[in-house]
C-alpha cells in the first residue's frame, strides 16, 4: 500500500496541484512580547482568504516530565531556548501541510505544561498558512518551506511590559515569577538566539504603536502573490483540457452510457425545459439508477468463493458474493446530491460523504469550503462513487478527487459518476490523474457539438432537481 | 448490453454485479427483506432492458439555453400484465419506471381434477390490443401458465411481437416449450438455469418465488 500511494502522488504532482499543495506559508518571528501575534492577526484578517490558518509554534512545546514540570511551576524551567520547542515535529507538520495533506497539529496546555492528550487540530485545504512564534525564523528547514519571512522587532523593555501583562492576565501567573523568568531565561535567550534570526527575514516590521503602513505594504505584497497563485491554478486547469490527441472515448477508463432508446428518450425529456419538476426528478432518478447500475456492472467489490444452498437443496460453490458495504459515495454539494435517491435505491445503507466546492464568483477558481468524509475512507472502502450531475469545466471534480487522494484513497478505488459532461471536463480529469481515474458519464458532449449544445455549459440539473436557482 | 443466446431471448449482461444479486436471492438463508430488495433490483433491470427495446420517434425539444435538441420520445403505449400471485411482485419494478402504467391481471391455477393449468380470472385494459404488453412472471419453468396467459393476450388482439415476457429465471426447456407456441414473443430474462427437477422446480432455481416474496 505505501508504495502504491507514493506512486499515485508522484503522478499527480506532474499534472495537477490544488491551491493547498504549495500553500503560501508566512513565517512571523520576533522576541517574546514583540507583537507577533497582533501583526499575524492583522495579516490574516486583511488578506481575507477563507483558507488561511494561523499556527502558533507554542503548540509544539515539548511535553515536560515530572521533574521539569515541577521546575516549570516554580518558574525555573527554560521555555525560551530553542530546545524547549519540538522543531522536528513542527517541521514535519508544516511539511505535511505544504504537501497538501490533512495534518493534525498538537495542542499545548500552559496550565499543565503538557500536550493536551487526545486533542489535536486537524488542518486541511489551507491556501495560506501563517506560522508565528519566537523561533519561527530559527530552523533552516522551516525557513526553506516559507514564502515570506517577517521579523517583528521591538525594544526589549516594551517586550517585558507586554509579557508581564499577558502572563498575569491571560495565563494566571504571579508577578514575581514572571519577572524572575524574564531575567533568567527570556531575555538572555532573546539576545542569544532570537534577535539573530532577524537576518533570516525578508521584511522587518517595527513594533511601534502605529505600524499600519508597514503591515499594509506586506498585505499588498501577499495579496498580489496570492492572485498570481490563483491565476496559475486556473491556467493549469485550462491547460489540462488540451494536450491529448486521443479521442476521449478511446480511453479505457472513460465509459459513456450506451445510447439505447430509453436512455435517449429520458435524456430528451430532461433537456426539455417545459418538463414539470415532478417529472424532472422522476426521470433524473431513473437515468441515474441506470447509470449507477452500469458502474456496478463494470466494477463492484466481490469475493467469488461463496457457497450457498438454494431452497430446493442444490449446493452452489464459487458463487459471487457482493461486498456492497465496501462501497461509499461522496457527493459534491449540490449537484452530486441529485444522485442520493438513486444511490439509496441501489445500495440502501451506502456510506455517504459530502464536499462543498464552490467557484469564486469573480475568477471562477474552484475553492474547497468543507469536507465531510466517512471515517477511514482510505481503508474501509474498495469503491468510492464520486458524484456530480454535470461536469462542465471539471475543476470542482478534479479538486474533489484530490481531496480523496489526500485522505489516502487510492486512484483505482475512485469512480467518477456524472450525468452530462463536456469532453473538455472529462479530458481534464484524464490528464490531471494520468488516466487512472475511472469516469462514468451518461452523455459526453464533444467540443464540436458545443456550438449548438450550450446547455452542456450551464448548470441546470441541480437547479431543476431541487427547484431553487 | 444484453445478449441474445437464442432467438428472441434477451439475457441481461452476466456481470459480477448481476451474478452477485442472484447469489443473494438464490440462497435459502436470505431473509425476506433482503430477498425482496434484491429481487426488486433485478426486476428493475429487467424492466429497463424491456423498455429499451421499445421503439421511439424523433422529437425536438427546447432546452434551458433556448437551443433545440433533436431528441427522441417513446412511441406507443404500454401496459403490464401480471400472472397472479408471483407475477404481481414485479409490478412495483414496472411502476418504478412507468409511474401510471396500467396493469392487467391473470389468475391461472392447476385444476385439481385434471392437473392441468386452468384460467380462473382475467382483468385487462380495454385497449390492450393497441399496447405493448410486459407479461410478468418471475419463473419460466414448464411454461404452462405463461403459455395460457399469452394465449389470453393474443385472443384479446395483442400482436405477439409486441409482447415482452419478463422473468428472473428460465430454463432452455421452458424457453423451447414457450417459443414453440409463440416464437415471436420476446423473452427478457436475467438467468438461464440448467433445467427442472422431478417436482418441476428450476434447478438450481430459488425455490417458490411467490412464497419467498410474500410469506416465508
Automatic annotation (TrEMBL), chain A:
<keyword id="KW-0067">ATP-binding</keyword>
<dbReference type="InterPro" id="IPR000836">
    <property type="entry name" value="PRTase_dom"/>
</dbReference>
<keyword id="KW-0418">Kinase</keyword>
<dbReference type="Pfam" id="PF00485">
    <property type="entry name" value="PRK"/>
</dbReference>
<comment type="similarity">
    <text>Belongs to the uridine kinase family.</text>
</comment>
<keyword id="KW-0808">Transferase</keyword>
<dbReference type="GO" id="GO:0043771">
    <property type="term" value="F:cytidine kinase activity"/>
</dbReference>
<comment type="pathway">
    <text>Pyrimidine metabolism; UMP biosynthesis via salvage pathway; UMP from uridine: step 1/1.</text>
</comment>
<dbReference type="GO" id="GO:0044211">
    <property type="term" value="P:CTP salvage"/>
</dbReference>
<dbReference type="Pfam" id="PF14681">
    <property type="entry name" value="UPRTase"/>
</dbReference>
<dbReference type="InterPro" id="IPR006083">
    <property type="entry name" value="PRK/URK"/>
</dbReference>
<dbReference type="InterPro" id="IPR027417">
    <property type="entry name" value="P-loop_NTPase"/>
</dbReference>
<dbReference type="InterPro" id="IPR029057">
    <property type="entry name" value="PRTase-like"/>
</dbReference>
<dbReference type="GO" id="GO:0005524">
    <property type="term" value="F:ATP binding"/>
</dbReference>
<dbReference type="GO" id="GO:0004849">
    <property type="term" value="F:uridine kinase activity"/>
</dbReference>
<dbReference type="GO" id="GO:0044206">
    <property type="term" value="P:UMP salvage"/>
</dbReference>
<feature type="domain" description="Phosphoribulokinase/uridine kinase">
    <location>
        <begin position="25"/>
        <end position="213"/>
    </location>
</feature>
<feature type="domain" description="Phosphoribosyltransferase">
    <location>
        <begin position="261"/>
        <end position="444"/>
    </location>
</feature>
<comment type="pathway">
    <text>Pyrimidine metabolism; CTP biosynthesis via salvage pathway; CTP from cytidine: step 1/3.</text>
</comment>
<keyword id="KW-0547">Nucleotide-binding</keyword>
<protein>
    <recommendedName>
        <fullName>Uridine kinase</fullName>
        <ecNumber>2.7.1.48</ecNumber>
    </recommendedName>
</protein>
<dbReference type="InterPro" id="IPR000764">
    <property type="entry name" value="Uridine_kinase-like"/>
</dbReference>
Automatic annotation (TrEMBL), chain B:
<keyword id="KW-0021">Allosteric enzyme</keyword>
<dbReference type="GO" id="GO:0005525">
    <property type="term" value="F:GTP binding"/>
</dbReference>
<dbReference type="GO" id="GO:0004845">
    <property type="term" value="F:uracil phosphoribosyltransferase activity"/>
</dbReference>
<keyword id="KW-0328">Glycosyltransferase</keyword>
<keyword id="KW-0342">GTP-binding</keyword>
<protein>
    <recommendedName>
        <fullName>uracil phosphoribosyltransferase</fullName>
        <ecNumber>2.4.2.9</ecNumber>
    </recommendedName>
</protein>
<comment type="similarity">
    <text>Belongs to the UPRTase family.</text>
</comment>
<feature type="domain" description="Phosphoribosyltransferase">
    <location>
        <begin position="13"/>
        <end position="214"/>
    </location>
</feature>
<comment type="pathway">
    <text>Pyrimidine metabolism; UMP biosynthesis via salvage pathway; UMP from uracil: step 1/1.</text>
</comment>
<dbReference type="InterPro" id="IPR029057">
    <property type="entry name" value="PRTase-like"/>
</dbReference>
<keyword id="KW-0547">Nucleotide-binding</keyword>
<dbReference type="GO" id="GO:0008655">
    <property type="term" value="P:pyrimidine-containing compound salvage"/>
</dbReference>
<dbReference type="InterPro" id="IPR000836">
    <property type="entry name" value="PRTase_dom"/>
</dbReference>
<keyword id="KW-0808">Transferase</keyword>
<dbReference type="Pfam" id="PF14681">
    <property type="entry name" value="UPRTase"/>
</dbReference>
Amino acid at each position: 500500500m505505501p508504495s502504491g500511494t507514493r506512486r499515485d502522488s508522484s503522478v499527480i504532482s506532474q499534472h495537477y496541484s490544488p491551491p493547498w499543495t504549495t500553500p503560501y506559508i508566512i513565517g512571523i518571528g520576533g522576541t517574546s512580547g514583540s507583537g507577533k501575534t497582533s501583526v499575524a492577526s492583522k495579516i490574516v484578517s486583511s488578506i481575507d482568504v477563507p483558507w488561511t490558518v494561523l499556527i502558533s509554534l507554542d503548540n509544539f512545546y515539548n511535553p515536560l516530565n515530572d521533574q521539569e514540570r515541577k521546575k516549570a511551576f516554580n518558574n525555573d524551567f527554560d521555555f525560551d531556548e530553542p530546545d524547549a520547542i519540538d522543531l522536528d515535529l513542527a517541521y514535519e507538520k508544516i511539511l505535511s501541510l505544504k504537501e497538501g495533506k490533512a495534518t493534525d497539529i498538537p495542542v499545548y496546555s500552559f496550565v499543565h505544561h503538557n500536550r493536551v492528550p487526545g486533542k489535536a487540530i486537524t488542518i486541511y485545504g489551507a491556501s495560506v498558512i501563517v506560522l508565528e512564534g519566537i523561533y519561527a525564523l530559527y530552523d533552516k528547514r522551516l525557513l526553506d518551506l516559507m514564502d515570506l519571512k517577517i521579523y517583528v522587532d521591538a525594544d526589549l523593555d516594551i517586550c517585558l511590559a507586554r509579557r508581564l501583562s499577558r502572563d498575569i492576565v491571560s495565563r494566571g501567573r504571579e508577578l514575581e515569577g514572571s519577572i524572575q523568568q524574564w531575567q533568567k531565561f527570556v531575555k538572555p535567550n532573546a539576545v542569544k538566539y532570537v534577535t539573530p534570526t532577524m537576518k533570516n527575514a525578508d521584511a522587518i516590521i517595527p513594533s511601534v504603536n502605529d505600524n499600519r503602513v508597514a503591515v499594509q505594504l506586506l498585505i499588498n505584497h501577499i495579496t498580489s502573490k496570492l492572485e498570481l497563485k490563483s491565476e496559475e491554478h486556473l491556467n493549469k486547469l485550462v491547460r489540462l483540457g488540451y494536450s491529448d490527441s486521443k479521442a476521449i472515448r478511446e480511453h479505457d477508463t472513460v465509459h459513456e452510457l450506451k445510447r439505447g432508446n430509453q436512455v435517449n428518450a429520458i435524456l430528451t425529456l430532461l433537456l426539455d425545459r417545459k418538463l414539470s419538476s415532478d417529472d424532472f426528478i422522476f426521470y433524473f432518478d431513473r437515468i441515474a439508477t441506470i447509470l449507477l447500475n452500469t458502474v456496478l456492472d463494470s466494477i463492484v467489490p466481490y469475493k467469488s468463493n461463496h457457497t450457498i444452498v438454494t431452497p430446493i437443496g442444490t449446493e452452489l460453490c464459487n458463487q459471487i458474493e457482493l461486498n456492497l458495504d465496501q462501497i461509499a459515495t461522496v457527493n459534491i454539494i449540490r449537484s452530486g446530491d441529485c444522485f442520493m435517491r438513486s444511490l439509496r435505491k441501489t445500495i440502501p445503507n451506502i456510506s455517504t460523504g459530502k464536499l462543498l466546492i464552490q467557484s469564486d464568483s469573480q475568477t471562477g477558481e474552484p475553492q474547497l469550503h468543507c469536507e465531510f468524509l466517512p471515517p477511514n475512507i482510505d481503508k474501509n472502502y474498495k469503491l468510492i462513487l464520486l458524484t456530480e450531475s454535470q461536469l462542465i469545466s471539471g475543476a470542482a471534480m478534479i479538486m474533489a478527487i484530490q481531496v480523496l487522494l489526500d485522505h489516502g484513497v487510492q486512484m483505482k478505488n475512485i469512480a467518477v459518476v456524472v450525468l452530462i459532461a463536456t469532453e473538455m471536463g472529462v479530458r481534464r480529469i484524464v490528464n490531471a490523474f494520468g488516466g487512472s481515474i475511472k469516469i462514468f458519464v451518461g452523455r459526453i458532449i464533444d467540443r464540436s457539438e458545443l456550438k449548438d449544445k450550450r446547455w452542456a455549459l450551464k448548470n441546470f440539473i441541480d437547479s431543476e432537481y431541487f427547484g431553487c436557482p | 448490453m444484453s445478449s441474445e443466446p437464442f432467438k428472441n431471448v434477451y439475457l441481461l449482461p452476466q456481470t459480477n454485479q448481476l451474478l452477485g444479486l442472484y447469489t443473494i436471492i438464490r440462497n435459502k438463508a436470505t431473509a425476506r427483506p433482503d430477498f425482496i430488495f434484491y429481487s426488486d433490483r433485478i426486476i428493475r433491470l429487467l424492466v429497463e432492458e424491456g423498455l429499451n427495446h421499445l421503439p421511439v420517434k424523433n422529437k425536438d425539444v427546447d432546452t434551458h439555453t433556448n437551443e433545440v435538441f433533436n431528441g427522441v420520445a417513446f412511441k406507443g403505449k404500454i401496459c403490464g400484465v401480471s400472472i397472479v400471485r408471483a407475477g404481481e411482485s414485479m409490478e412495483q419494478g414496472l411502476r418504478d419506471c412507468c409511474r401510471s402504467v396500467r396493469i392487467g391481471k391473470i389468475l391461472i391455477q392447476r385444476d385439481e381434477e385434471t392437473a392441468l393449468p386452468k384460467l380462473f380470472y382475467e382483468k385487462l385494459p380495454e385497449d390492450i390490443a393497441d399496447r405493448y404488453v410486459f407479461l410478468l412472471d418471475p419463473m419460466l419453468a414448464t411454461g404452462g401458465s405463461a403459455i395460457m396467459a399469452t394465449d389470453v393476450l393474443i385472443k384479446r388482439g395483442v400482436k405477439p411481437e409486441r409482447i415482452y415476457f419478463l422473468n428472473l429465471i428460465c430454463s432452455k426447456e421452458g424457453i423451447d416449450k414457450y417459443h414453440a407456441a409463440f416464437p415471436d414473443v420476446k423473452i427478457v430474462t436475467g438467468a438461464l438455469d440448467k433445467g427442472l427437477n422431478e417436482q418441476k422446480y428450476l434447478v438450481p432455481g430459488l425455490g417458490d418465488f411467490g412464497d419467498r416474496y410474500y410469506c416465508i
